[in-house]
Amino acid sequence: MLVENLDMKLARIRELLDTIQDSVNYPELQNEILELKQRIELPDFWSNRKSAEAVMLELSSKLKTTQALEVALASLSDIEELLTFIDEDTDPDQFKAVIEDLDELDFQIQSLGAHVLLNGDYDSNDAVMTIRSGAGGDDATDFAEMLMRMYLRYADLTGMKATVLDSSQAEGAGIKSASIRFDGPFAFGKLSVESGTHRLVRMSPFNAAGKRQTSFAAVEVVPLIESSDEIAIPDNEIRVDVFRSSGPGGQSVNTTDSAVRVTHIPTGTVVSCQNEKSQLQNKIEAMRVLQSRLLEIRRMEEDAEKRKLAGDVKASWGEQMRSYVLAPYRMVKDLRTEYEENNPDSVFDGKLEGFISAGIKWRSQENS
């Protein structure tokens, strides 16, 4: 591992730990634990069993947070100290073991950060991501497909389940759009920081002159809501069309009209699903995604109204947020967090932990 990459990783982990400590207000958390312990010691504590159990659960949760923080801080200090004595060239085996410990610690801190910093109403939900190609012709549709592969690889690396619900192939290279469902702990909270306009700069493989080309793709992430009670959709507000699936599938997928397209007439929101084998299953999945998108539209409208009332003219979260530069130099940079990496191949291969961690931290600070 290059020294500069190792230093960047250590700095990122340390910054995330500091952010978690600030977020939970560690000194105040210690006081709260002390107060809860004092309540438990009262003679009549168990007179109301339901209340007592709630206090015990709260204490257990706070203790787990403080213990996890203390263990992480101690482990990081030990690793940093070891790395001052170990040289990769003279003791490669021990150096490799320490790096493996650092990777494991990184994973544990990411999980802790998810539970502490991802505390929004829907952060713990599963998610649906939609990727759409923008300006840039074949380069843009190819870029959209590169992003789809990147997020599928991220899911594979992090243990999330990713299911492509629908995709539309471009006439040339790549895809016009794709919708992907992600199932896993805090899937929406993590992936929601990827929402926005992504930009690719490279020497175009579709240009005979080999000129540098800039292309764009939009990423939208909505939480998959748990209950249909969140958004009631009258039957007269939707139109359901069925068609034959165009993607790869089994015996029945491409031979029957099993794919479903649901249109919400008042907003013009369209959701397609062709992943399941039966028309009914695809309709159920499409309706659930439609409800999630309508919920997100309502949330965005409420946020826009709040910004209007507050006189806030700052750019919204959904504006251009990341650049992937492959020529004349190689770098991926998040324009909100200033986090960057100089290995685009690694990023496109799904290694997004640094960007997502920085995004979660940035959003936490913006909302504080």
How would you summarize this macromolecular structure in one to three sentences?
The protein has 368 residues and is α+β, with helices and mostly antiparallel strands. It has helices at residues 3-24, 26-40, 49-85, 92-117, 137-158, 187-191, 279-310, 344-348, 353-367, and strands at 127-133, 161-169, 175-183, 196-203, 212-223, 238-243, 259-264, 269-273, 320-325, 331-334, 340-341. The protein is 49% helix and 20% strand.
In whole angstroms, the N-to-C terminal distance is 36 Å
According to CATH, what is the topology of the largest domain? Alpha-Beta Plaits
Number of domains as seen in the coordinates: 3
Give the strand order of the largest sheet, numbering strands 1, 2, ... along the chain: 2-3-1-5-4-9-10-11
**Unreliable segments (pLDDT under 50, ≥5 consecutive)?**
248-254, 309-318
Largest sheet: 8 strands, mixed
Architecture per CATH nomenclature, i.e. the level-2 architecture of the largest domain: 2-Layer Sandwich
- DSSP E strands, number: 11
Structural class: alpha+beta
The helix count comes to 9
Q: Average the pLDDT over all residues and give the rounded result.
A: 84
| Helical residue percent band | 40-55%
- How do the helices and strands follow one another from N- to C-terminus? HHHHEHEEHEEEEEHEEEHH
Choose one word for the global shape: flat
Percent of residues in β-strands: 15-25%
Looking at the chains present, what oligomeric state does this protein adopt? Answer: single chain
Computed CA radius of gyration, to the nearest angstrom: 24 Å
The CATH class label of the largest domain is Alpha Beta
